Amino acid sequence: xxxxxxxxxxxxxxxxxxxxxxxxxxxxxxxxxxxxxxxxxxxxxxxxxxxxxxxxxxxxxxxxxxxxxxxxxxxxxxxxxxxxxxxxxxxxxxxxxxxxxxxxxxxxxxxxxxxxxxxxxxxxxxxxxx
Length: 130
Known about the structure:
about 130 residues; alpha+beta; three-stranded antiparallel beta sheet; 3 helices
């Protein structure tokens, strides 16, 4: 993914040197705005120009894929249901991947959407269109 900095006003005369950084180089690195995934998880990418900065949160992983295998599966939906009834805990990265609906919290809807995707009733999750 490539991130770009937009200047306002567009004809700003200050130094436009962008300093890029990541909160978690194990998950994602950034060089000149190009973000490279390293491992599953979440990282915050920061672009700083002078005393101004902007942040962008990057999640690396297959959306909905909380089980850690190679493919999205029924196990992912089952794990979400187990999480909801407090039989298992999720890491922050798993919570982010489980929230396929894009709502504020993981819910039964997320498990339902994973199952719908598996049987090809839907071809993408609502969060993928945000």
